[in-house]
Amino acid sequence: MSLNSRGLLAFEHLRMRKDTQADPEPEKKEEADPDNQAETAKEEEEKVEEGMWEETFKSHSDGKPNGPSSVSLDFSLPGVEHVYGIPEHADTLRLKTTDNGDPYRLYNLDVFQYELYNPMALYGAVPVMLAHHAQRTTGVFWLNAAETWVDISSNTAGKTVFGKMLDYVQGSSETPQTDVRWISESGIIDVFIMLGPTPKDVFSQYASLTGTQSFPPLTSLGYHQCRWNYNDQEDVQSVDAGFDEHDIPYDFIWLDIEHTDGKRYFTWDPHKFATPKEMLQGIMDKKRKMVAIVDPHIKVDSNYKIHNEIRSRGFYIKNKDGGDYEGWCWPGSAGYPDFTRADMRAWWASMFAYDQYEGSMENLYTWNDMNEPSVFNGPEVTMHKDAMHGDWEHRDVHNLYGFYVQMATAEGLIQRSGGVERPFVLTRAFFAGSQRYGAVWTGDNAAEWDHLKISIPMCLSLGLVGISFCGADVGGFFKSPSTELLVRWYQTGAYQPFFRAHAHLDTPRREPWLFGPENTALIRDAVRQRYTLMPYWYLQFYQAHHTGQPVMRPLWVEYPQDPATFALDDEFLIGRDLLVHPVTEEGVRGVTAYLPGKDEVWFDVHTFQKHNGAQNLYIPVTISSIPVFQRGGSIIPRKLRVRRSSSCMEHDPYSLYVALNPQRTAEGELYIDDGHTFNYEKKEFVHRRLSFANNLLSSVDLAPDAQFTTHSWIERIIILGASKPSKVTLKTADGQESHIDFEFDASMSVLTLRKPGMNSGADWTVMLQ
Amino acid sequence: MSLNSVPVRSCTIKMSSRFHQLLPMLLLLSVGVSAVEVQRPRGVPLSKRQFYEEGKPFTCLDGSHSIPFDRVNDDYCDCQDGSDEPGTAACPNGSFHCTNAGFRPAFIPSSRINDGICDCCDTTDEYNSGAACQNTCREMGHKERESLQKMAEIAKEGFVLKQQLIQEAKRGIEDKKAKLVDVQVVKKDLEEKVEALRTVKETAEQPEKEAKERHLKAWEDQKALIRMEKDKARMAVVFLELDDDADGLVSVSELLSHSELDPDSDASFTEAEAQGLLGGVDKVDTEAFEAVWNNLKEKYVSEATEDTAAPVETPPEEVREPASDNESEQYPEDDVQEDEEEEDEEDEDDDQDDADYKTPPTPATQEKKDDDDEGTMPPYDQETQNLIDAAQKARDDFDEAERALREVDDQITNLEKEISFDFGPNAEFAYFYSQCYELSTSEYIYRLCPFNRVSQKPKYGGSETNLGTWGKWAGPEENVYSMMKYEHGTGCWQGPNRSTTVKLTCGKETVVTSTSEPSRCEYLMEFTSPAICGEPPSRDSEPRDHEEL
């Protein structure tokens, strides 16, 4: 990598407006005395260009007190043909060259009905780009929260495969190279280069700068049922009952803005949600939880406690003239608290205390929407750049606003429990480091097949830059999905990190049971598949929390030397061991999945059929198919007793799926803790390595200094690619040996060990003889 | 009933992971007579007890295979159909039977066994989860019986009312049918009357038409005469004007001074052209002028009016009002009146302004001007007027009879519609017809007019919104009259047209009990009526029968 090789290092220094110095009211002066213009011009040493000190956009004006500031630098990446990251864009995983259009733009915006395959700015911004070729992965972290543009060009972009081959044969090929230019509107050049050389190195290097994914409560990895809006408490109760009636598990039900008293966050509509604690208790009785929305725009209303406190403490962002900035949002006229202030965040966090947030209980969590921030009557539906955060202009910190909102909210949820409970906060806007505070979703998508498809590269791109807890609105937010699309979206969402259905106010209801028994069954099946894999998802997040590795991964992260994987974004890995190729096209009879790994095998998780790696596999599909494969050489723990919520499954036994590789070995891990507190930081957990080799499957403690008592036990062990043993013996830590019954399916080479029964936290060995 | 007085033994079960435990149960084989203890594995309903025989191999209920009996309820799923684990959560598709003594027995999914949530009112689903469940079966049974009793009472009274409604509806239909017969007779009479009056009318209209035409013809002739005279007068004036040297002859050179007469309007009016206009000669006298007058009169501009061209061009506007009024020719007297009124200057100006941006003067209005000059049609003579009056009377009589016939037709249509309308199997819903029922909420007044429409009106001002007009009975197949569907209401922004489902339940009164909007622009209304009440079960058979204690 080389910097400034194209000489694009540039910056516009901050200027003092000279005429302003000479006369505090130059414009008035000019108006009053036009003859004086010559004198004014003399004062200007530099040529004043239009827009230097003020710009207008539609009816908005932007005063630029420091003049036309900007910074820029270019990076050349020899040997690189694939660059990734810089979310959030609704685009392919592999970034495109921008020679023929706009650069990728990073500027957090509330975009109405966003367009796909487009470099336009969306809700969040992480100025991190990864560059990859078969020998090395590197990264660039451009730490700047102002509006940023990224231009990408490549010397091979226009070439066809044949052209490249010709170059190769002729030996005349110049080294492929990608050139990238970063430009920000203000601030300084503050760049971190991550040198890799492996993708994992880049992830941990970046994690050392911005932190890792927060470890979410286990339940938040379950299914979330959301809608704008559940009308009232009765509605909430009947939807909750609907899930039980149709035997579909879920963990969280969500309330959008209509639950509040006139869009005053931290309050409840006195008629529709008159007794919120009663409602929350009803949900708690089912071991389920709720999320209510708290947006950062605060209704300007002198009868609203939150507003009065923020105003009296001077916590609102100011306009350029020093008054409280006011914009138009859901409640009408609204103020925007200055979340860049630590004292403001501390105060905000204190508002989540149970005695402050009336009607809240420990099973109520929070959703921060509109935190780009969204200002309906602002330029591009966001805040004026010349609004002031203390001495800082909004232009300098814009992309950080949403980050701070989520940070303060997460802190509030931690504090209300006395630092015991892990928070869960969903945000729409984000920045580098937002992974530390919760989950992110891809905003207001639409009920269209292309939007289902784009959810994969959008979440993969976020994962690459640290934000693992990502999901798209299942079903699509705007418009109404066809039944087939809805079913396919559940099937896809069930295998993405954040799994939430959501719908616009104006769409017809679409709870899973409203589309006939067959479709209810299909959706039930998809959701249940999610729940059987909760132990695996939880383990992935535990690991992401420790290492910064993404949970949902592009294939190239695990197969960095296989160029066939570099641009794949219609399939993905969860951790290392599960490969998912969801069906994202209408009416198809089959999909072609690339199974990586020259010497590897993959097992269809539904049929246990074994397939070789390094091939494009055609998979016939029906409406019930979700093509998922387990890597040979892995061990995946599942819980097959799917109950109505993940909390209900806490003590249930595990089934271990041991998929043997051609060397007849396999490895996996099992992680267990209480699922919701920070006690894991005090070493209260079970973390075991499961390994199979030489016909011995054993469980070894990976954290001997940790302690946790689990009631769960090992219910069954399913060994894929096994041969038939004559007997199976379990040896426990105390040296006791016992026979294990087993079944062997010769047609699929599946060995099922029946009810070995040992505690999940114990040492044990199973011998196949 | 002695059901509630039977003691229930609560069972504490020591769980073992390997061995099942049979659940000793109390059972009343015949209610209140004798108690027999029947052993069966946990979660098995009595009806399936015989498949679970202790000590003998258990065959999965789907017949797929057999397992030793000690694998029944051993917390491991051996049967695909889940039948080996009726009392544990081991099978994903199993079900657990709660006896729920004092209430209704129930099956719950196996996944709800020991999940910490009390599902069975007898607490038997939570035998090993630590959940502190209270046995609520008696309470629930009591409540259910109370509510069933209440409902039964309502149903009973409602059903009586329903019978009345059916009788009323029957009478109503009979009445309507009878009325229909009457009205049909009336209709027949009316039809005959209409035909007779039509003949009268046509008979009277023929002479009227002829007389009018005569009158008009006379007027046209007179007008033609006047026009001709005027033309002649103008010709004489023009001749005098053209004849500059007053020699009684109009010459080519005299003609040339009027360049507007240039036949090809090419800005060069040649002698040859002028000569051509004069019929090929150099001079014409008055007689010869008459022969060529037609060549000149269209284009000729009077010397007297040349300087004041504007007023010449305005006449079309001046007559705009009379012209338009002339279109209603059957009221000639109005025209007269109009003309008698003196229009002042300002009115004239206004008209002119109007014309400036409305329509340019047209030949039609030019003609009207001539008409105007020629005066208006004189009133009909007495004879014609008498014919017209007679015809008008015949027309009025005919129209009135026809109107009456239409009314009767409407009446018949309505009656037939009402008679054939689907008011339920016994027309018990007929009494809703042309009624409306309202429900007032905090924000709106909802109004249900059955078989017509549903609407919503804001309480504090604002216009009414149509939530749907009558569509159809929309209940499930076995009870199609339990729901009404109103469709195609006012459209929603970015959404569907509003629609309303009305759910009917048995009640003594006919009243809208609730409304809601479960989905955007899809309303749900609850409506009670005796007409939907079913026949209450007879005294002998109790509403519920207990399968078990």
From TrEMBL, chain A:
Catalytic activity: N(4)-(alpha-D-Glc-(1->3)-alpha-D-Man-(1->2)-alpha-D-Man-(1->2)-alpha-D-Man-(1->3)-[alpha-D-Man-(1->2)-alpha-D-Man-(1->3)-[alpha-D-Man-(1->2)-alpha-D-Man-(1->6)]-alpha-D-Man-(1->6)]-beta-D-Man-(1->4)-beta-D-GlcNAc-(1->4)-beta-D-GlcNAc)-L-asparaginyl-[protein] + H2O = N(4)-(alpha-D-Man-(1->2)-alpha-D-Man-(1->2)-alpha-D-Man-(1->3)-[alpha-D-Man-(1->2)-alpha-D-Man-(1->3)-[alpha-D-Man-(1->2)-alpha-D-Man-(1->6)]-alpha-D-Man-(1->6)]-beta-D-Man-(1->4)-beta-D-GlcNAc-(1->4)-beta-D-GlcNAc)-L-asparaginyl-[protein] (N-glucan mannose isomer 9A1,2,3B1,2,3) + beta-D-glucose; N(4)-(alpha-D-Glc-(1->3)-alpha-D-Glc-(1->3)-alpha-D-Man-(1->2)-alpha-D-Man-(1->2)-alpha-D-Man-(1->3)-[alpha-D-Man-(1->2)-alpha-D-Man-(1->3)-[alpha-D-Man-(1->2)-alpha-D-Man-(1->6)]-alpha-D-Man-(1->6)]-beta-D-Man-(1->4)-beta-D-GlcNAc-(1->4)-beta-D-GlcNAc)-L-asparaginyl-[protein] + H2O = N(4)-(alpha-D-Glc-(1->3)-alpha-D-Man-(1->2)-alpha-D-Man-(1->2)-alpha-D-Man-(1->3)-[alpha-D-Man-(1->2)-alpha-D-Man-(1->3)-[alpha-D-Man-(1->2)-alpha-D-Man-(1->6)]-alpha-D-Man-(1->6)]-beta-D-Man-(1->4)-beta-D-GlcNAc-(1->4)-beta-D-GlcNAc)-L-asparaginyl-[protein] + beta-D-glucose
Main localisation: endoplasmic reticulum
Pfam family, one: Gal_mutarotas_2
Keywords: Endoplasmic reticulum, Glycoprotein, Glycosidase, Golgi apparatus, Hydrolase, Signal
Organism superkingdom: Eukaryota
Region of interest (Disordered), residue spans: 1-72
Domain (Glycoside hydrolase family 31 TIM barrel): residue spans on this chain: 214-538
Biased composition (Basic and acidic residues): 12-31
This protein's pathway: Glycan metabolism; N-glycan metabolism
EC number: 3.2.1.207
UniProt keyword annotation of Coiled coil present: no
Subcellular location: Endoplasmic reticulum; Golgi apparatus
UniProt feature coiled coil, ranges: none
A single GO BP: N-glycan processing
Domain (Glycosyl hydrolase family 31 C-terminal): residue spans on this chain: 548-636
Name of the top EC class for this enzyme: hydrolase
A GO molecular-function annotation: Glc2Man9GlcNAc2 oligosaccharide glucosidase activity
All residue ranges annotated as the Glycoside hydrolase family 31 N-terminal domain in the record: 2-151
One of the record's GO cellular component terms: Golgi apparatus
PANTHER family (UniProt xref): ALPHA-GLUCOSIDASE, NEUTRAL ALPHA-GLUCOSIDASE AB
Family the entry assigns: Belongs to the glycosyl hydrolase 31 family.
Name of the protein this chain belongs to: Neutral alpha-glucosidase AB
